Amino acid sequence: MSTTYDKDLNDVLAKATNEELTVPHDIIVKKLSELMTIEEVYKEHYPDHSKYPDLMAKELRAFGGHTFVNVFRGGGPSWYEVVCDVARKVKAPFGEGQSIADVEASILATILSKAFEKMSEEERMVVINEIRKSNKSWAGGVSAAMFLALFKVGGFASYKLMLIVTNGLVTQLLGRGLPFVVNTALTRTMGVASGPIGWGLNALLLAYEAGAPSYKVTVPCVAYVGMLRAKQQMMRCEKCGALLNQSFAFCPECGTKTDGREADSRPSSAS
After folding, report:
1. Could you report the per-residue pLDDT of 249-267, keeping only the tens digit for each?
2. Is 5 exposed, middle or buried (0-12, 13-18, 19+ CB in 10 A)?
3. Measured between alpha carbons, how far is 186 from 252 in angstroms, rounded to an integer?
4. Which pTM does this prediction carry?
5. How does pLDDT run across 224-253, given as a tens digit for each residue?
6. The pLDDT of residue 77 is above 80
7. Which DSSP string do the residues of 31-91 spell out, in sequence order?
8. Greatest Cα-to-Cα distance within the chain, rounded to the nearest angstrom
């Protein structure tokens, strides 16, 4: 049953910064059928997207409903239903009742694994070397399965992989990468996504589009929301707001000693 509020989506968008919300905003306004821009709250506050995250959530769920057979359900499906539908489409493994964060992680890892298979050995090593900089204890080999293993570990390395996938998907859909500034430890990884990973993801998107045009939008949207959810759970430097690995004793950006605390509920624009 459809409801106006969806905790799995509305909460994440409500905690996002205005800059982070430019991605779902720009995806929505590309739709000819969108209704967000005619709402009074939108007209009053645009371009401060943080003033209308619930409108965005409603539009994203409605569009996600286009991939379902029953389009007369009186509104969009729940975000969990949309995420599970995307998981089935990309053949990402998940179990009934599994948390939405786990399903999102499986989707992101599966997409990255498929893109990884299309890379040359040299291109693969570029990605692996970037991952090792954030997870020095990892000793896995060069294989598609390593991505799923790294996602199970979680933390900074897992988030880094999410950025690679999401940046590639957003670049292919909107013609530009993620808008928010990332700290130095992530900059090089973001750059990789515009190269070999982006090419692999483009081929995958074309395949999704051939089966159902809506997936060209729902896949990036699900990936992006999943990345934001993970980001909001990351540790942050108390002084500069940079994202931190739990193993960091000092912030690599400003040198401040870390205290092991998780991120604030609303991410800092510094990262």
Report:
1. 777 667 777 764 444 434 3
2. exposed
3. 11
4. 0.81
5. 999 999 888 776 677 766 666 555 677 766
6. yes
7. -TT--GGGSHHHHHHTT-GGG-HHHHHHHHHHHHGGGSS---SSSPPPHHHHHHHHHHHHT
8. 55
Question: Which residue did the predictor score with more confidence, 54 or 131?
Answer: 54
CA distance 88 to 64: 14
Residue 97 region by backbone torsions, left for phi larger than 0, else alpha for psi between -120 and 50, else beta: left
Distance CA 170, CA 162 (A): 12
Contact 186, 157 (CB under 8 A): no
- Local structure of 235: helix, strand or coil: strand
Specify the 3-state DSSP secondary structure of 231. helix
Measured at the CA of 127, the angle between CA 164 and CA 225, to 5 degrees, comes to: 15
Q: Report d(CA 143, CA 32) in Å as an integer.
A: 41
